[in-house]
Design goal:
The complex is a heterodimer of chains A (189) and B (559). With 189 residues, chain A is an alpha+beta fold. Chain A is 43% helix and 13% strand. Chain A folds into 2 domains: 88 residues, no CATH class; 83 residues, Glutaredoxin (3-Layer(aba) Sandwich), CATH 3.40.30. Chain B is an alpha/beta fold and 559 residues long. In chain B, a hairpin with a 6-residue loop joins strand 5 and strand 6. The chains are: A alpha+beta (189), B alpha/beta (559).
């Protein structure tokens, strides 16, 4: 369901905190339920596999929505609030979609010394300029604690392609190329 | 390009008289190594490579730990190493080097300061100055080929452990080796294993933790991307020694290629009967599950790691009970860093798993303002000076280094006069730090140690799980004080307050994260007091004052 790094959603619901409330919520897409069952089946048994299931959902849908959290809670015999506690604790998990294109800037020691702050500043500016579609941010600049690529510091990762922090122009071109595929942007990863 | 998590073509694209190895660590792949392999393969095919004498070679190699020079292309027979290779260079490399054995001057490594060029591994001080034992197969073996790893000695140690040795015999070997936990406490490994083995229980667990504190993360990433079978073997031997059937590899999700390679290696080892119900046909059971961090950082804190593995938030808990007695699901659990585990096959294997027996080593991740940053494995006891000046080539701009920080957040900030310090658990501990994950960050002349300390405290403060007040609140207060000092609003009594506060946090925090957070400030106040005092003149951190350059010129550095 991930096509060229672009998350294609097969679920679109509001969840128990949404306007439709608990009772009126539309039924989850059967494909989502099937995926949850599949992930639970392959994950290590019991609660030890819970995080792997949540990660699998996050990576497929770009978020773990409230409705999906309720479903997972049900499968593990837990209360939804316990799942919500996990989703809000782990940096990689989120209930809301954070952006379709993730620009990861490493802020490890070496990247910091070589000016990761300024890279974030520069890229955040151009990410904000990218026009949001349907109210969701298109590009999100995220800080990674250490990618372990200190030899390339400051390092930026976009769709698994690495860039030097000094190449902000190239990264911006990549962002534009990703957002407007017709514009034939360079380095479409 | 295809995403690097896709399986890299593992088949040997052997071609021509000289075999070639292209580094496929995530840094090299991210810079186009897969395209380089493809173009070399195509060019060699056009040239009729298959018809010529073909050495059994594996074109893909794992991470060499020299990411600053990638993508790397090596000709082992010619002792030749090309740096920063682009796909456009492939045709020339095939024609001139692969078939005619000529050296392409412009692709050789060049030392930035004096312009000296180095031809291969043997004359390059970065590699020649090292003693690669744990990293011996990194950059040589194809990390996605079990056969290649086995041909180079992988699983010899495990075979001996399950066929010839029993648990007490392995424990004895490890104890006698004098190995101490690398990355973390420096606790004697043999002692820890014995506690796990001797605690009565129906189940035991062994956990390999690939989550240390940066810049040591490079070590974990390189081991998994370069030689995942070495880590798996170490974990399996640990399981045999303490009587555990369940292994866990805890890996950081950000290191996607490392996770993918570890998963592939575990699956391959399982399919071949190296892991599973009967390890190597011996009847001993051992299974490995891979768990990802989901972006959380435990900073190497064992109790937080255990909570995460049990599907809980990664928060620390008071000790005792120690994990070795009551860990995962209340059972005795051995938690070890990947580097420690990768040492085990060398100790248990027949004559060191086919590799020569030698002294214990430490992998040091040298980074910062040095000419040749990268992963350097040196015998324990080697001086910081040797690593910084000989292996890493000294400062990148020829000016004297201001300081070097050894050992991550818990480490020591050393003045140039302290560079004689030996990289050794006890020496570093005597000086008030901890060897930690073995990161060595060189600070350029003109960098500010107060700002550097602020960065490390900030990293710890963000990692705080919030369980205990000294860490949750104290580190933020320290951070605010440092901010005030850097901004020029520091008061004369701030340094005394800092010192007292840091001392309290150090002694009263629940876990390692809180205990290490203030170390860099305490060490800074001791060794660089003048720098801290210089910030109290009302101007704070400013060019010409504390030495912070107005514009960080290192940003212009190309990759």
């Amino acid at each position: 369901m991930i096509d060229n790094g672009r998350v294609v959603s097969v679920e679109d619901e509001v969840g128990f905190l949404g306007p439709e409330g608990v009772d009126g919520a539309a039924a989850l897409d059967p494909a989502v339920i099937e995926l949850v069952n599949e992930l639970v089946a392959v994950a290590p048994a019991g609660r030890e596999g819970l995080l792997a299931v949540l990660l699998g959902l996050q990576r497929t849908f770009g978020r773990v929505s409230w409705r999906v959290q309720e479903l997972v809670a049900d499968r593990y015999g837990m209360s939804p609030v316990q799942i919500a506690g996990l989703v809000s604790f782990f940096p990689e998990l989120s209930a809301e979609r954070r952006g379709r294109l993730k620009v990861e800037v490493c802020v490890g020691t070496d990247c910091h010394l070589r000016g990761a702050d300024r890279v974030i500043e520069a890229l955040s500016g151009s990410a904000a300029e990218a026009k949001p579609v349907s109210g969701e941010p298109e590009v999100v600049v995220e800080q990674e604690r250490c990618l372990g690529l200190c030899g390339l510091a400051p390092v930026v990762r976009v769709n698994d392609r690495l860039y030097a922090g000094s190449e902000t122009n190239r990264i911006e071109r990549t962002m534009r190329g990703w957002l407007e595929p017709d514009a034939a942007g360079e380095d479409r990863g | 390009m295809s995403v690097p998590t896709d399986p890299v073509p593992a088949a040997a694209t052997s071609c021509g008289p000289y075999s070639v190895r292209v580094c496929c660590g995530s840094a090299c792949v991210g810079q186009g190594a897969l395209e380089v392999i493809e173009t070399i393969r195509v060019a060699a095919g056009d040239r009729g490579g298959e018809k010529l004498r073909v050495e059994p070679s594996h074109t893909v190699s794992g991470c060499r730990g020299w990411c600053s020079r990638g993508p790397l292309v090596e000709f082992p027979d010619l002792d030749l190493l090309y740096c920063h290779v682009a796909p456009d260079d492939a045709a020339e490399i095939v024609e001139r080097t692969m078939f005619r054995g000529e050296v392409i001057e412009r692709l050789l490594d060049r030392t930035p300061v004096n312009g000296a060029r180095h031809r291969g591994l043997s004359d390059n001080p970065f590699f020649a100055g090292q003693m690669r034992r744990v990293l011996a197969r990194c950059g040589v073996v194809d990390p996605e080929s079990l056969d290649h790893a086995v041909a180079l000695g992988a699983y010899d140690g495990l075979r001996r452990a399950v066929e010839e040795l029993d648990s007490p015999a392995i424990l004895d070997l490890v104890k006698r080796s004098g190995l101490r936990e690398l990355g973390g406490s420096g606790f004697p490994v043999g002692l820890k294993w014995a506690v796990v083995a001797e605690t009565p229980s129906d189940e035991r667990y062994v956990v390999g933790s690939g989550d240390s504190v940066d810049p040591g993360l490079t070590v974990d990433r390189t081991l998994l991307e370069g030689d995942p079978h070495g880590v798996i073997e170490g974990l399996a031997i640990a399981g045999r020694a303490v009587g555990s059937r369940h292994g866990r590899l805890f890996l950081r999700s950000e290191h996607r290629l490392a996770v993918a390679r570890a998963q592939r290696a575990v699956a391959e080892a399982r399919a071949r009967g190296i892991l599973g119900r009967s390890v190597l046909g011996s009847g001993v059971e051992f299974e490995i599950e891979i768990c990802e961090s989901a972006g959380a950082s435990t900073g190497g804190e064992e109790t937080a790691l255990l909570n995460l593995l049990q599907g809980r938030r990664a928060a620390a808990r008071p000790r005792p009970p120690f994990p070795a007695v009551s860990g995962l699901w209340g059972r005795p659990t051995l938690i070890s860093t990947l580097e420690t585990l990768a040492n085990i096959p060398l100790i248990v294997g027949p004559d060191g798993g086919g590799r020569t027996v030698g002294p214990l080593t430490k992998v040091v991740a040298v980074s910062g303002a040095v000419a040749r940053p990268g992963l350097a494995e040196v015998p324990l006891g080697t001086s910081v000076e040797r690593v910084l000046l000989e292996i890493a080539g000294g400062s990148e701009d020829g000016r004297e280094l201001k300081a070097a920080h050894l050992g991550g957040p818990a480490g020591l900030t050393l003045r140039p006069t302290d560079f004689g310090t030996a990289i050794d658990h006890d020496t570093v501990r005597t000086l008030g730090g901890s060897l930690g994950s073995g990161g060595l960050v060189a600070l350029a002349s003109g960098s500010c140690v107060v700002r550097f300390a602020r960065y490390l405290v900030d990293a710890c403060a963000r990692q705080s799980c919030g369980t205990c007040p000294p860490c949750r609140i104290g580190t933020w207060v320290v951070l605010n004080l440092l901010d005030r000092i850097c901004a020029g609003d520091g008061r004369l009594d701030d340094l005394g307050t800092l010192e007292r506060l840091c001392h309290h946090i150090r002694t009263t925090s629940l876990c390692e994260i809180g205990r290490v957070a203030p170390v860099v400030v305490l060490a800074g106040l001791e060794r660089f007091r003048a720098d801290y005092e210089a910030h109290l003149d009302g101007h704070g951190c400013r060019p010409g004052g504390c030495g912070t350059p107005a514009v960080n010129d290192t940003l212009s550095k190309g990759v």
